[in-house]
Design brief:
By secondary structure, the protein is α/β, with parallel strands linked by helices. It folds into three domains: 5-259, Alpha-Beta Complex (2-enoyl-CoA Hydratase, Chain A, domain 1); 294-469, NAD(P)-binding Rossmann-like Domain (Rossmann fold), CATH 3.40.50.720; 477-621, N-(1-d-carboxylethyl)-l-norvaline Dehydrogenase, domain 2 (Orthogonal Bundle), CATH 1.10.1040.50. β14, α16 and β15 (424-429) form a beta-alpha-beta unit. α12 crosses α13 (324-343), α18 packs antiparallel against α25 and α19 crosses α25. The longest helix is centred in the C-terminal third of the chain and has 21 residues, at 599-619. The two termini are 41 Å apart. The structure holds 3-hydroxybutanoyl-coenzyme A and 1,4-dihydronicotinamide adenine dinucleotide. 3-hydroxybutanoyl-coenzyme A is lined by residues 22-23, 25, 57, 60-65, 76, 97, 99-101, 104, 123-124, 127, 129, 131-133, 135, 274.
Length: 654
């Protein structure tokens, strides 16, 4: 089998080229090829060596598919030490995304250049890991302790220009990177540039207190995750020990992370997310419809955020509202959200203004005559939605995709209101839609393959994580919320308090406990939905009696200042004895025996409820695979990534 790494002498420069699609990951074959090439360079006429990659990116990291399997020589840290020890000057030439082990390879080179669009970073923390091939030791030596802590604990890549400013990259090369890197290597040799080994540099001055500052910051931000804390320990070792001792520390903690259940869970999610983007039975070459402009019906909570998601990806949006006044209100919310993005440093003022200019408003459906896709986001009223789809059928050109953002309603019934059900699909965004990454793509019975393929690809373009769902009440995510919410109500009647339920779930890792979530969403939503149901359909009163009484008392949740909790002006929840009285009263009316409920039981029953419903969803074919459910819950419902999603967690707990 031919090696993915080739080596050739170009005049006086040895060029090591890696060509291992799709992302030049450091598989065993790549590591072996790199080792052979660097060794060959030591004994030939080369004066310097350039490491460059073919395809869309420089090495994007270790090969994650090899994790959890026995390690095969050469190990990456040893290989990188060999590269760094090279007697010939080594230049790394970066393009695309030089990540994790990929950027560690670049750090082992003596000089680094990059294409202007390149990005570098350490995403290991998102896999429950830390850089395990010297990244925690070499980065602080080049960029200082604080920059290393920021880069490695956040996992967020930075642009080549920024990397140059902090000393991680030496030169940006415009034009042909390979030719530019070779020419630069020649210049370095000609100017007598020294072999400059990162491991031999001193860590710039730093304040020792910084490590504890990051430890407490990360304890809040990455609750319960071990990798961030270990990263701080490794960087502290880099700053206080010899390079060799620091490397030993990094190896010890890297292996501890690799063997942890957290990393197994996060690696599962990495592949589950990528698998979720694939639709079983849909040919890879299914044609896609061009989407150059879109329309949105409804500029409320969701419409505004959805508009921003498209505008941020450079796609023009026409937003339709019911009146000029409603339109003005909707666009004002968009303005406010853009101001927020600027304030949080997500966009510059210019970027925000450029995106905002792509959103225009109208009260006339005729403005949608030329758009390629319309997303309806009006009130959750099935009859209203059907009326709007009948109108869209007339207003939109042939071939336009008609999507609904409904949370629960029957996409097939909505499609039937048009003369072109094959063009209709569900695009269920999550709130706030310009921030939340999940997109449930609801495939109707008649949705055409090219419509589905188009929407899946479009999701990626607007930086969402798509998961396909079949049609059922609530699709994947909201359908699972129903038994979860009912179980939370039973736990209250049996003896747990709202704060015990929420605290137990938050301590376990959920971003927010179930009762606080209900208060945030508004208790009136469930109340209104139940009003339309018969007693039979509503099920056991134990699962809804308490929230119904709270709504009847005017306690609608955060928006009315009270729900399961009392809220002050800053929306901080405090326990409320009036709620406990209602719970006690309902328990007694419905004959529920009160007892002590433990935190373990709360977690087991609530997560168990999610798992049981998830199994049904897979069995019915609503979700393509159980990993899709994990992606939905982690990206849309605050399930802790370090536990891999409800189905992964359930499978590993038997
Ligand atoms: N190992 C193995 N496969 C990888 C991989 C990796 N590091 N990175 C990506 N892939 C695979 C994906 O699974 C996918 O496979 P598929 O086509 O069969 O689904 C394919 O490459 C393309 O990936 P994406 O769909 O994600 O492509 P994008 O163009 O959207 O993104 C990327 C490219 C930014 C490189 C993204 O894939 C990514 O972030 N990859 C992971 C990078 C990473 O985590 N690196 C660190 C690894 S850990 C490490 O290096 C440890 C070291 O310190 C010792
Ligand atoms: P909202 O009440 O904030 O906004 C609805 C908007 O639609 C209002 O501005 C209203 O003026 C406008 N509208 C009503 N009839 C219209 C018509 N005929 N033509 C044009 N505009 C019209 O509602 P929200 O929360 O944005 O929800 C919209 C949809 O998104 C619903 O189907 C909801 O279930 C779904 N959804 C809501 C989520 C949330 O968290 N709020 C999350 C995911 C989906």
């Amino acid at each position: 089998m031919s090696s993915p790494v080739s080596y050739q002498l170009e005049d006086t420069i040895g060029v090591i080229s890696i060509d291992s699609p799709p992302v030049n990951a450091l598989s065993h074959a790549v590591r072996q090829g790199l080792l052979d090439a660097i060794n060959a360079a030591q004994n030939d006429a080369s004066e310097a060596v350039v490491i460059v990659c073919a395809g869309r990116t420089f090495i994007a990291g270790a090969d994650i598919t090899e994790f959890g399997k026995p390690l095969k020589d050469p190990w990456l840290p040893d290989l990188l030490n060999t590269i760094e020890a090279s007697a010939k000057l080594v230049v790394a030439a970066l393009h695309g995304t030089a990540l994790g082990g990929g950027f560690e390879t670049a750090l082992a080179a003596h000089y680094r250049c990059a294409a202007p669009g390149a990005k570098i970073g350490f995403p290991e923390v998102h896999l429950g890991l830390l850089p395990g091939a010297g990244g925690t030791q070499r980065t602080p030596r080049l960029a200082g302790v604080q920059a290393a802590l920021d880069l490695i604990t956040s996992g967020t890549p930075i642009a080549a220009g920024e990397a140059q400013e902090i000393g991680l990259i030496d030169k940006i090369i415009d034009g042909d990177l390979r030719a530019g890197a070779i020419a630069w290597a020649r210049e370095l040799v000609a100017s007598g540039a020294k072999i400059r080994r990162s491991s031999e540099q001193d860590v710039p001055e730093f304040d020792h207190a910084i490590f504890d500052v990051y430890r407490s910051k990360l304890a809040r931000r990455a609750r319960g995750q071990v990798a961030p804390d270990h990263i701080v320990a490794c960087i502290e070792a880099a700053a206080t020990m010899t390079f060799e001792d620091g490397m030993a520390k990094e190896r010890e903690l890297f292996m501890a992370c690799m063997d942890s259940s957290q990393s197994a869970a996060m690696r599962h999610l990495f592949f589950a997310e990528r698998l979720a983007a694939k639709v079983d039975g849909l040919a890879k070459d299914t044609p896609q419809r061009p989407i150059k402009s879109i329309g949105i019906i409804g500029g409320g909570t969701m419409g505004g955020g959805i508009a921003m998601s498209f505008a941020n990806a450079g796609i023009p949006v026409t937003m339709i509202e019911i009146s000029e006044e409603a339109l003005e209100r909707g666009l004002a919310i968009v303005d406010k959200n853009y101001a927020g993005s600027v304030k949080r440093g997500k966009l510059t003022q210019e970027q925000a203004a450029k995106c905002r200019a792509l959103i225009v408003g109208s009260v006339d459906y005729a403005s949608l005559a030329d758009v390629d896709l319309v997303i309806e986001a009006v009130f959750e009223d099935p009859e209203l939605k059907k009326k709007i789809f009948a109108k869209l059928d007339k207003a939109c050109k042939a071939g336009a995709i008609l999507a609904t953002n409904t949370s629960y309603q029957d996409v097939d019934a909505i499609a039937a209101a048009t003369g072109r059900p094959e063009d209709v699909i569900g695009m269920h965004f999550f709130s706030p839609a310009h921030i939340m990454k999940l997109l449930e793509v609801v495939r109707g019975k008649k949705t055409a393959d090219d419509v589905l393929a188009t929407v899946m690809a479009l999701a990626k373009k607007i930086r969402k994580v798509p998961v396909v769902s079949g049609v059922c009440y609530g699709f994947i995510g909201n359908r699972m919320l129903s038994p979860y919410g009912k179980t939370a109500q039973l736990l209250l009647l049996e003896g747990a308090s709202p704060q015990q339920v929420d605290n137990a779930m938050e301590a376990w890792g959920m971003a927010m406990g179930p009762l606080r979530v209900f208060d945030l969403a508004g208790l009136d939503i469930g109340y209104k939905a139940r009003e339309a149901l018969s007693d039979d359909e509503k099920g056991d009163p134990k699962s809804y009696r308490v929230p119904d009484l709270l709504v009847e008392m005017g306690r609608l949740g955060q928006k009315s200042g009270a729900g399961f909790y009392h809220y002050d002006d800053a929306r901080k929840p405090t326990p409320d004895s009036a709620v406990q009285e209602i719970i006690d009263q309902v328990a007694s009316e419905l004959g529920v025996d009160r007892r002590t409920v433990t935190d373990e039981e709360i977690v087991a029953r609530l997560i168990g409820a999610l798992i049981d419903e998830g199994k049904k969803i897979v069995a019915e074919g609503i979700a393509q695979r159980s990993g899709d459910i994990d992606v939905v819950y982690v990206y849309g419902y605050g399930f802790p990534a370090a536990r891999g999603g409800p189905m992964f967690y359930g499978a590993n707990r038997g």
